[in-house]
Amino acid sequence: MPYTYQYPRAALTVDCVVFGFDEGELKVLLIERGLTPFKGQWALPGGFVRVDETLDEAARRELEEETGLRGVFLEQLYTFGELKRDPRERIVSVAYFALVKLALSQTRAATDAADARWFPVSKIPKLAFDHLTIFTTALERLRGKLRYQPVGFELLAPKFTLSQLQHLYETVLGTSLDKRNFRKKVQSLSLLIPLNETSEGPGRPAQLFRFDPDKYERLTKKGFNFDL
Amino acid sequence: MPYTYQYPRAALTVDCVVFGFDEGELKVLLIERGLTPFKGQWALPGGFVRVDETLDEAARRELEEETGLRGVFLEQLYTFGELKRDPRERIVSVAYFALVKLALSQTRAATDAADARWFPVSKIPKLAFDHLTIFTTALERLRGKLRYQPVGFELLAPKFTLSQLQHLYETVLGTSLDKRNFRKKVQSLSLLIPLNETSEGPGRPAQLFRFDPDKYERLTKKGFNFDL
DNA sequence: TGACATAGTGTCTATTATACACTATTATCC
DNA sequence: GGATAATAGTGTATAATAGACACTATGTCA
To answer: What is the pTM of this model?
Structure first.
């Protein structure tokens, strides 16, 4: 135990709320804890911040170690510092929220985690620590961001139809939207590039689009406001 | 040095970006550091988080110790965790942003601070650590919040005129607003209670108002959206 | 009492949001 | 190969909201 300090220090962790959208549902990735405390319970992926990595680095590392996910959209959410949030000792956790193109991604359980599994946000099991509070905060943030920032595209495959985009908005926001008005609004942003491809499946094939992040960047710098 | 741990730990601090509005200007409260590092330079008020207090408690305590301020609007902003942000060792800082009814408040310098002083946001001196980054983040947040949350009232005295409110919005957002349209919009929210008092000073006395936070709470729960 | 300083007020127009229903294209099944 | 099922795609009329715009009102002070 070679690390000594003049005053007691809280330990620092990161925890990630990872959202995915699949089968018409918004889902969250949870891991089954392999170690005490709360061994066997479901929890958010996360772990201790090393002294030689930034918070963002720690979040990405833990995410990959515990779930196998890489290269996802990741953003700091809030820092939770209640005194008894961890039964072992004083632990402050910097929470992140992540968005995953679920259809494409492979997840796996690894290191310290017995299992990793996607849960619909309407069927979250009992969570370890204060992870339910963190999850709730993240869900509110996602709902808030969806309207005025182009984060929805992070949850869809790179090529998507307007119907898929609309279903995403309806599911996450819990509302129902008028098809014609939605399409009008989306198209008026001119941030979607129509591809020379159509979707497969039953019914009439649909035009596929991709989001144009560069154009969004340029417009943002000119004071443009995304709003759906 | 009695506190030893198995792994090295970052130290945890809080830093506060305190905004006030006075003489038609948006100002920030800075302290002159009395100790190394950066002794003699200006910095945000803040300090180490004790192991037996929450982050919010630490922010309020440091704010009072270093500036004498109590009972102000305080909200967590962002957590800064770059590796070399402090030259001494690895320090992670949870930043807060605070809004003060400046006209009323008394500030004083204290503990570890040689001086505390209000600076117009357009004339910020060179700041210690990464405090300029923190300040910039806070200013962006304030501008963003002003439009869709009733935070402006936290910067005004409890009794204020519509002109004062408008000037606040114009100054912080850096725009100029139409008087009649602004008043129409504000009044349509019906969150201001007219008082049986008028303002002093040159020109025609103005109706004084106060903000009704209870009504705002009630409306918020019913899905009301503040928007100015 | 006149000049100065600031408060307060309404209408018309343009823009944006909302409500609303049918036709089009593909695959499948008989 | 024609009917059916499934989903895509399209336009207009109305309501609501936002924006432009200029004069009168009320107090103080010289």
So the answer is: 0.94
